[in-house]
Amino acid sequence: MKAIKIAFLVVAVVFVWFAQNHFDPYAVSILNNIAIFAILALSYNLINGVAGQFSLEPNGFVAIGAYVTALFLIPAATKIDMFALDAPSAGVLAMHTSFLPALIMSGVVASILAFILSIPVFRVRGDYLAIVTLGFGFIIRIFAMNQPTYTNGALGLNDIPEKANLYWTGFITIVTFVIMLNIIYSKYGRAMKAVRDDEDAAIAMGINTFWIKTYAFMTSAFFEGVGGGLMASMLTTIAPDQFTFLLTFQLLIIIVLGGLGSMSGTILGAVLVMGGTEWLRFLDQNMDIFGYNTGAHPGLRMVVFSILLIVLMLFARRGLFGNKELVDVFRRSK
Amino acid sequence: MDITTFMQQMINGISLGSMYALIAIGYTLVYGVLRLINFAHGDIMMVGAFAAYFAHASGIPFGLAVILAIIAAMVTGILTDKIAYKPLRNAPKISLLITAIGISFFLENLFNVLFGGVPKAFSAPNYLTKIIHFHGIVIPMTVIIIPVVTLILLFIMLWILNKTKYGMAIRSLAFDIPTVKLMGINADFIIMLVFAMGSGLAAIGGIFYAISYPSIDPLMGVIVGLKAFAAAVLGGIGSVTGAVLGGFILGFTEIVVVAFMPELGGYKDAFAFVFLILVLLFKPTGIMGQDLERSRF
User: Fold this and answer.
1) In A, which residues are within 8 Å of B233 by CB distance?
2) Domain-by-domain residue ranges, chain A?
3) Is the CB of residue A245 less than 8 Å away from at least one CB of chain B?
4) What is the mean pLDDT of residues A22-51?
5) How far is B127 from chain A (nearest CA, A)?
6) Helix/strand/coil (H, E, C) string of chain A?
């Protein structure tokens, strides 16, 4: 067992190294995108798939992570030039660190917000989490728009130093994957699954369900923040409109396709959905079908993806992997 | 702040609140019966507004266009239930929520592809947009019509729920679906009825919204839907009267806060969310609601 796991790790590390050095820039940019979405989807799957708490917040936490990292990376002089709507506040000017601390700070800030949100939300069960977190995603955008001293308002931040490359995104994906698997197979992971399957039974077994849910939510938020930071540094420019519900929706498709609760499935889902988004690009553009020009249809890809999501839920609720992991294939059946 | 301005803001608040109320009723009905947040509800409202727009633009008289829009929204609501929710009645709740999101996103993007994302100007006949001057208060006709229609619809809803056989069936479904089926009631038909009523009300709310902010776009249902849900929770989810009350409170708050504290104007859309958090923190059952697990209209 252990040998197989290590073999997977080595293959992944070698692949990241090889891709960064030998692939052409377009392929590397797609891989970067896949890696970032894999990080986000892995952490999203922890709260949605493993702990069974249906939340719709990733766009909010990703936005926070992106803004925190961006503010930490941009030098003070650039900030003064960039903030057109209002002068940046003193705190924003003082923020400056290297990339890794910035990413960690992104995760910590997102995590703290997750803790604050969990207090009202986990007082009631189930679907309130969905609507409150959905609202949270909107609110973060409203704040980003209305606090020009911190975020430069609707103009967003640009000239973010491009620190992220495939080493960063790839290795953080691998680290996230390993941490998530370790959580799932730990005491906490089993408690999360118990909460997902039957909350009353979990309480009866002595599990503090509030803390388990909060723990899953905060861990998930941490990695979503980190992923947001990577995204900011990769895109070099961020604006409030990037962090709409569309982002959450893409992550939802990824984890549903891969299988709720399966981390290996999530990686595969990220590859398929992000690769598919790239591949289906032709749908949004002009098409000639038997000589008839259909015209450009921006958004058609998303119609396809929403139909895919509904069909998956109706006919293949378990996704590609169910809640199994790739290594389970090698495990002898009991 | 003189009395005229005050009255003016009160009237605006009542009008906005009525719109939230109409949409909140749909959330509360579906939640009461299926324990499901119908994420597509805001988008069904959008479908209603678009149907009214296209019907009116093609020369159909406005009154008829409204009826067509209500029918279109009802059909959308019923189809949503039949296609996306009915096959999953016995599935885990999370599956239902995911398909609800899927339907919501599907409707938004389908309308975006078909009709474009650019807001369309919504024109209503003169007798609706006429403006009355009353002791210095400017009252558009809609502002009077919307609350009146809302209250009439509320009483009709309460009458249906409390005095008719179908209403009794709906209330009993809210308690226990399997037992209701054993009593020989066609549960699927009653659930269809619930979706039809909620969607019809949403269409009326959507048309009022379109008249008041005279433009419509495919994403208009998202934020309004979210606010209406917050209103339903505030009033006590599962209670129709509560939904209307919550809608009025939310509408008032938005108008009054923006009128008295203009610097908070940018955060207008955040109030609903703050309400939602406060209600969950201090009184998760809302104003009129009873036990969350077993609420009755």
Assistant:
1) 128, 131
2) 2-286+293-329
3) yes
4) 91
5) 36
6) CHHHHHHHHHHHHHHHHHHHHHCCHHHHHHHHHHHHHHHHHHHHHHHHHHCCCCCCCHHHHHHHHHHHHHHHHCCHHHHHHHCCCCCCCHHHHHCCCCHHHHHHHHHHHHHHHHHHHHHHHCCCCCHHHHHHHHHHHHHHHHHHHHCHHHHCHHHCECCCCCCCCHHHHHHHHHHHHHHHHHHHCCHHHHHHHHHHHCHHHHHHCCCCHHHHHHHHHHHHHHHHHHHHHHHHHHHCCECHHHCCHHHHHHHHHHHHHHCCCCHHHHHHHHHHHHHHHHHCHHHHCCCEECCEECCCCCCHHHHHHHHHHHHHHHHCCCCCCCCCCHHHHCCCCC
Interface probe, candidates B277, B282, B283, B291, chain A, greatest A C-beta count within 10 A: B277
pLDDT tens column, B195-225: 999 999 999 999 988 888 888 989 888 889 8
Q: pLDDT tens across B108-139, in order? A: 999 988 888 888 888 878 777 788 887 777 78
Burial of B6 (0-12, 13-18, 19+ CB in 10 A): middle
A120 contacts on B by Cβ (under 8 Å): 277-278, 280-281
Q: Which of B98, B111, B226, B294 is the mutation pick for testing A, counting most A CBs within 10 A?
A: B98
- Whole-angstrom distance, CA of residue B66 vs CA of residue A143: 37
pTM (global) more than 0.95: no
| CATH assignment of A2-286+293-329, among 3.30.870, 1.10.3470, 1.10.150, 1.20.930 | 1.10.3470
Question: Cα distance from B187 to chain A (closest Cα, Å)?
Answer: 21
Residue B97 to residue A54, Cβ atoms within 8 A? yes
Residue B288's H or E segment, with its range, is none
Residue to test with chain A: of B36, B41, B99, most A Cβ within 10 A: B99
Interface contact A280, partner B, CB < 8 A: no
- Rounded Cα gap, residues B2 and A26, in angstroms: 63
Looking only at the bridges linking them, the beta strands covering B137-140 and A292-293 are unpaired
